Amino acid sequence: MGLLNEKDNLTIHYDYGDCWEFKLHVQKIQPVTNEELPYVQKARGYGIIEDIGGVGGLEQYYDDYQQGQVDPEFLDWLGGEAIDLNAVDIDELNDLPHHF
């Protein structure tokens, strides 16, 4: 028995100001070599946006985005482009650990 087992449920608290909480479900554990990194098999949605104001701020942004009414000042804060919170790029997520 290892630190994690199949069917384990985890809650991860990520708090750098907005106090995010994530629920994870371990579906499968496979043996790996030291060269392999964990990877995402399935995902739903973009994820969080740092410093947006927590769950309430993210919900407000999502509603505004769905209505096509994102505040121009907020768009500037995002770097000039709105983020589609329904989209997820699993390849991009799995590539991130290779840059650290």
Q: Would you kindly provide a written description of the structure presented here, covering whatever features stand out?
A:
- By secondary structure, the protein is α+β, with helices and mostly antiparallel strands.
- It is built from 3 helices and 2 strands, in the order ββααα.
- The chain has helices at residues 54-66, 72-77, 90-95; strands spanning 9-14, 20-25.
- Strand 1 and strand 2 (20-25) form a beta hairpin.
- It starts with 8 loop residues before the first strand and ends in a 5-residue tail after the last helix.
SSE diagram, text form:
Blueprint: E1 9-14, E2 20-25, H1 54-66, H2 72-77, H3 90-95
Antiparallel strand pairs: 1-2
Could you list some keywords that capture this structure?
about 100 residues; about 10% strand; two-stranded antiparallel ribbon; about 25% helix; alpha+beta
Task: Please outline what is shown here.
The chain has helices spanning 54-66, 72-77, 90-95, and strands at residues 9-14, 20-25. It is an alpha+beta fold and 100 residues long.
Strand line-up in the sheet with most strands: 1-2
Shape annotation: elongated
* DSSP helix fraction: 25-40%
Count the helices. How many? 3
Helix-and-strand structural type: alpha+beta
Largest sheet: number of strands, sense, barrel closure? 2 strands, antiparallel
Kindly report how far apart the N and C termini lie.
30 Å
Radius of gyration (CA) equals 17 Å
Mean pLDDT: 87
Strand content: 5-15%
Tell me the total number of β-strands: 2
What is the chain-wise order of helices and strands? EEHHH
Unreliable runs:
none
